[in-house]
Amino acid sequence: MDAEPESGKCNAWAASGPDGNLSPYKIKRRVVRSDDVSLRITHCGVCYADVIWTQNKHNDSMYPVVPGHEIVGQVTEVGSEVKGFNIGDHVGVGIYVNSCGDCENCNSFLEHHCSKIVVTFNGIDTDGTVTMGGYSNHIVVRERFCFKIPDGYPLAKAAPLLCAGITVYTPMIRHNMNQPGKSLGVIGLGGLGHMAVKFGKTFGLKVTVFSTSESKRNEAIDLLGADNFVISSDRQQMESLKSSLDFIVDTAAGDHPFDPYLSLLKAEGVMALVGFPSEIKVHPGSLIFGTTPSIYRFVSPFAGENKLKLKGIYVLYTLYAGSRTLSGSGAGGTKGIQDMLNFFMVTRGAYRIYRVV
Fold first, then answer.
1. Residue 185 and residue 197: Cα distance in Å, rounded?
2. What residues are paired with 119 via a beta bridge?
3. 63-80, pLDDT tens digit by residue?
4. Strands, E, within 152-244: which ranges?
5. What is its cofactor (predicted)?
6. Residue environment code for 125-155, b if the CB has 16+ CB neighbours within 10 A, otherwise e
7. Residues in a beta bridge with 180
């Protein structure tokens, strides 16, 4: 599409109904305000969220829908009060473009938890307009929700960081999953899984990928650099890793059992859920004791035996690998996003974090 003026009408691709088909469409961007940044969009990543709302899978799509929330480009205009950006800067815009700015979450730079968050597309902005995303020529956003991309980082490969990247980076930092020498498990090898493996290797972790498909082995080991690959349905492979992992990032969207993975964590290990299965079923024993109830005994030099009566059956436990945590996480705040991007300035050349397709 040909470039359009940076304010006013803008060329875009929009879905007009739940079939999700995209066609050329004209939208109107607001005039740049004092705290706004306008950028010419060079690339926009494709996310499953684009499918969800162009096809009205959540029954809340407001057509026409212009999708796209992994946006990168170049600054073409800044408002009079903008201090952090200059014309020509390489920048990105992620999954939200506004928030209340006054609540506890916003004041802690956790804007993604703000009750008044405005998502980048198919949301209602403070002026009542429906937000339109990155499948377009340009976008105008408040400075707070625009992020500087390091010089030299390929814009085409930076786009997925604004959604998939920050989604796995946030729990990894929150739970100290950036400590060299520790062990990380990654469940699933889609877009989120790719990023988790890349971050894990950059942080100096020993990374094990779990998948139901043997066809993902070469991708995990040879392409992404994982240290180990395990077929999650293979009981022997899973048993061999019991109580061996410090962290697990679960990126799987489909329904799957949780207890087998929780058993792979060391005592006080953390499993962070970033995928979205339809339900979560966890036996409390997996979190408290480190195993689900069954008639067997762990051998451990660290703790005494404990007896649990279950339906008239006495089960012996040795409590040595419990106190595990199952945590949820989604996206990240503005400070976290910029910290993630700044991280590349330090690690550039050490281990490129690109989503590999």
1. 9
2. 96
3. 999 999 999 999 999 999
4. 183-187, 206-211, 228-231
5. Zn(2+)
6. eeeeeebbbbbbbbbbbbbbbbbbbeeebeb
7. none
* Residues paired with residue 43 on neighbouring β-strands, in sequence order: 72
Q: Are 29 and 7 in contact (CB under 8 A)?
A: yes
Which of the pair, 225 or 323, is modelled with greater confidence? 225
Cα–Cα distance between 101 and 285 in angstroms, integer?
41
Max Cα-Cα span within the chain:
76
Q: Whose CA is closest to 135, among 35, 34, 21, 58?
A: 21
In this structure, how many other beta carbons lie within 10 angstroms of the beta carbon of residue 78?
A: 22
Cα separation, 14 vs 61, in Å, equals: 12
Do 69 and 133 contact (CB within 8 A), yes or no? yes
pLDDT in tens, 144-179: 999 999 888 889 989 999 999 999 999 999 999 999
List the beta bridge partners of residue 265. 245
CB 76: neighbour CB atoms within 10 A?
18
The contacts of residue 159 (CB under 8 Å, 6+ apart) are: 43, 44, 45, 70, 71, 72, 92
Q: How far is it, in rounded angstroms, from Cα 250 to Cα 272?
A: 6
Residue 307, both tokens:
């007896």
| Cα–Cα distance measured from residue 74 to residue 138, given in angstroms and rounded to the nearest whole number | 9
| 107 — pLDDT class (breaks 50, 70, 90) | very high
pLDDT in tens, 235-288: 999 999 999 999 999 999 889 999 999 999 999 999 999 988 888 888 787 887
pTM for the predicted model, two decimal places: 0.85
First-last CA distance in the chain: 25
What is the 8-class DSSP label of residue 219? I
Tokens of 256: 């799957």
The answer to whether the beta carbons of residues 89 and 74 sit under 8 Å apart is yes
Sign of CA dihedral 143, 145, 146, 147: positive
Percent residues over pLDDT 90 in the chain? 72
Percentage helix, strand, coil for the chain under 3-state DSSP, each rounded to 5: 25, 30, 50
